[in-house]
Design brief:
It is a single chain. The chain is of the alpha/beta class and about 350 residues long. The chain folds into two domains: about 180 residues, 3-Layer(aba) Sandwich (Rossmann fold); about 150 residues, 3-Layer(aba) Sandwich (Rossmann fold), CATH 3.40.50. About 40% of the residues lie in helices and about 15% in strands. The protein is built from 13 helices and 13 strands. The strands form two sheets. The chain has a seven-stranded parallel sheet with strand order 3-2-1-4-5-6-7, sandwiched between helices. Helix 9 packs across helix 12.
Length: about 350
């Protein structure tokens, strides 16, 4: 029996939530499928997260920015030549591939994880209309209830074809650690250093706190030089660690006393799930599904996208070790109940197998 061939297209295969989720799924199932991965920007940094025994290729496809019709023609030719059993596209940046799939016989599943800063406050009408036209009749997978509502109400997609599949987490890998609650408090975050993560807000909130704590920022990206400069301007350079990109961030969660998310836009952030699995309380901006994700008792620390409000949440948690332990245990229990990665694996396996078998 021939191994089904899945073609995955990403705007970028840099290390991020969607890419790491795919790596976890692919590694779990091994050689159940044969994978080809196209990164439209050529960035394949997340390939380091893939197990070496996988059957995976990284073909190069000619992509020309701004040449929509030309790109659609080139992508159609590539699909005809490679003949994958299914095409799996990711987010708005791959919409031209979705267009190409409409003119061919390849089965198509689209995964939408969220939006860039340009769609933080509202859906852009042209993009909403394009999604409505191009994704009609396709299976669309979303990890958040907010996205499901947008796909049905704004993009006008069939509710029967919009699949809500929450992200899952390896509960063993992020098992909670005993924390004494003594000594300086370590606030941690794990994020790509991009504009929509609003890490400047986190730095300014941290600068408002009483001296003595630490802030650890795990991740890398184009905003790092500006953030390092801002830390200097705020006078907190000595208390802030930029840990850079880490292949395994789990050990950092064991060093955190509490977790912070400062983003302007998210849907179902993997970092919050990791913090929950690690038994941490979370101070976060009120974005995407975070209010539904976190334990009910953590709700007072979900705040508007404002540095003063975030600082208040951080200060309250930093000052109360007993509260941190209580919220961390509640978040861990919620992760165990609702976000075990085995459930996510089963859902994606059904989607991948269904797409390749149709």
């Amino acid at each position: 029996m021939t191994t089904p061939h899945l073609l995955h297209v990403y705007p970028s295969f840099a290390v991020g939530g969607a890419q790491m989720r795919f790596a976890a799924i692919a590694n779990h199932f091994g050689r159940r499928w044969r994978h080809s991965i196209v990164a439209m920007d050529g960035n394949l940094a997340c390939r380091a997260r893939l197990a070496p025994e996988l059957d995976v290729a990284f073909p190069t496809v000619d992509v020309r920015k701004g040449d929509t019709l030309g790109n659609v023609r080139r992508f159609r030719r590539f699909l005809a030549a490679s003949q994958p059993d299914a095409l799996l596209t990711s987010n708005w940046g791959t919409i031209e591939w979705a267009m190409a799939a409409r003119f061919g016989k390849v089965r198509h599943v689209h995964v939408e994880d969220g939006f860039g800063p340009e769609e933080r406050l509202r859906q852009l009408p042209r993009r909403a209309m394009m999604r409505r036209l191009v994704l009609a009749g396709r299976t669309v997978v979303v990890p958040s209830l907010v996205l499901r509502r947008i796909a049905i109400e704004i993009w006008k997609l069939s509710p029967a074809l919009v699949r809500y599949v929450p992200n899952g987490i390896d509960l063993t890998r992020f098992a909670p650690q005993e924390r004494s609650g003594e000594g300086p408090v370590t606030i941690g975050t794990v994020a790509a250093l991009r504009a929509e993560k609003a890490l400047g807000r986190l730095l300014r909130a941290f600068a408002r706190l009483p001296a003595g704590g630490r802030l650890v920022i795990v991740g890398d990206g184009p905003e790092r030089p500006a953030l390092e400069q801002l830390a200097g301007e705020l006078g907190v350079t000595a208390a802030v660690t930029f840990a850079g990109q880490q292949n395994d961030p789990a050990r950092f969660y064991r060093e955190f006393d509490l977790f912070a998310l400062s983003s302007d836009t998210e849907q179902m952030p993997l970092s919050v799930l990791e913090a929950m699995a690690a038994g941490l309380p979370v101070a976060t901006t009120d974005v995407g599904d975070v209010r539904a994700m976190l334990a009910t008792d953590n709700a007072p620390f979900i705040v508007p996208p404002d540095e003063a409000a975030l600082a208040t949440a951080l200060a309250s948690l930093a000052a109360d070790p007993a509260l941190r332990r209580h919220l961390g245990a509640a978040n861990r229990a919620k992760a165990e109940r609702d976000y075990n990665q085995d459930t996510m694996f089963a859902a994606y396996a059904a989607l991948f197998d269904g797409a390749s078998a149709q």
